[in-house]
Amino acid sequence: MDNSILTLQSPLDMHLHLREQEMLQLVAPLSARSFAAAVIMPNLLQPVDSLAAVTSYHKAIVNACGAELFTPYMTLFFRDYSKDELMSAREAVLGVKLYPAGITTQSEAGVRDFDAIGTTVALLEELDIPLLVHGESNGFVMDRETEFLQVYEWLANNFPKLRLVMEHISTAAALRFLERHPQVAATVTLHHLMLSLDDVAGGLLQPHLFCKPIAKTPQDRDALRQAVFQGHPQLMFGSDSAPHPRHAKECCGCAAGIFSAPVALPMLAQLFEEADCLDTLPIFVTENAVRFYKIEPPAKNVYLGRQKWCVPELYGMVRPFLAGNELRWNLLDVETTD
Ligand code: DOR
Ligand code: ZN
């Protein structure tokens, strides 16, 4: 095929916020168009922490996606669960997502006492249900991820068969942790491959680049880039695309979250191409996740072409990542291959 066309087979977004109601209607079709499947985060106003909530949220997502072939892999919000609860929810979810209480958007119901999570974590290990973790302490904002590594260390050492995912890693220290723990996986966002703290707060404050974990140093960003470009086997793409209405971003008390879903694949193609690493992009956006999660996503070819386009200033009430920028790759077509 023409080398100006890039075919991605079943690209996956392993960390996605779709929200509810009008926001869900607005953003779900954008991810459903360009990805074969995505892992859906459970931090709704009312956390998704029961099988009934998973089932009804799944239904709302499928409705919002219309005719697109797209699998939403659901997650449960971490709390103390009984074995019966986990066994009955198991078929309906890909994993359980743990938030430290209050660490980010709609996480108040998260964990306050890490000494008390062992019983539920042991059940997840026993039932082979992945545990997805927002790994930040409540310390100094630039040190939060590194400080949380001691919790990851405890999880990895005490639950060696647990399928543990470090979500949206933002530091070189997290990569060093992965080297010591080859059974652990991590997601990496597009924005953590592109930004450092300087982009957020080094000049005029950029609320649309404010997210948790906050973008770190240029050295951290470059270490993440190097790892994904080399096809690091433990790293999966997870956009952490997290839409907030413009009024919640451009205000005093700006919400954390970057809405990157509409630009994710074209911009990834551009970054990988610039590094002369387009051949490792499928490892990052499909293969590692398929292997780690043991999933069979729908067969869907996504065709990207070298075609310039300008990222819209707004999608409805949400300002996307890279708004107003010209991108070199565009989504040309999708094809179901089953
Ligand atoms: O920036 C973020 N926004 N980080 C998260 O962990 C959550 C997300 C959201 O839900 O808005
Ligand atoms: Zn998230």
Could you describe the 3D structure shown?
The longest helix has 15 residues, at 51-65. Helix 1 (21-34) packs across helix 2 (51-65). The chain has 338 residues and is an alpha/beta fold. 48% of the residues are buried. It has helices spanning 21-34, 51-65, 83-89, 118-127, 144-158, 172-180, 190-194, 197-201, 218-229, 246-249, 264-274, 281-293; strands at residues 5-9, 12-16, 37-40, 71-73, 75-77, 95-98, 131-133, 164-166, 185-188, 235-237, 300-310, 326-336. Helices cover 36% and strands 17% of the residues. It has one domain (12-264, 276-296): Metal-dependent hydrolases (TIM Barrel). It is globular and about 50 Å long. Strand 8 (164-166), helix 6 (172-180) and strand 9 (185-188) form a beta-alpha-beta unit. The strands form 3 sheets. A 6-stranded parallel sheet has the order 5-6-7-8-9-10. It has a 3-stranded antiparallel sheet with strand order 1-11-12, with helices on one face. Strands 2-3-4 form a 3-stranded parallel sheet. The chain is built from 12 helices and 12 strands. It binds (4S)-2,6-dioxohexahydropyrimidine-4-carboxylic acid and zinc ion. Zinc ion binds at residues 15, 17, 41, 240, 242.
Distance between the termini: 20 Å
| Helix percentage | 25-40%
Give the distinct bound molecules.
Answer: (4S)-2,6-dioxohexahydropyrimidine-4-carboxylic acid, zinc ion
Cα-atom radius of gyration:
19 Å
Number of helices: 12
Q: Uncertain segments of ≥5 residues (pLDDT<50)?
A: none
Order of SSEs? EEHEHEEHEHEHEHEHHHEHHHEE
Supply the helix-strand structural class: alpha/beta
Instruction: Report the count of strand segments.
Output: 12
Question: Any idea what the shape is?
Answer: globular
Strand content: 15-25%
Overall CATH architecture: Alpha-Beta Barrel
- Most strands sheet: 6 strands, parallel
What is the CATH third-level topology name?
TIM Barrel
Number of individual domains: 1
Quickly name the level 1 CATH class: Alpha Beta
CATH superfamily: Metal-dependent hydrolases
Record the strand order, biggest sheet.
Answer: 5-6-7-8-9-10
What number is the mean pLDDT?
97
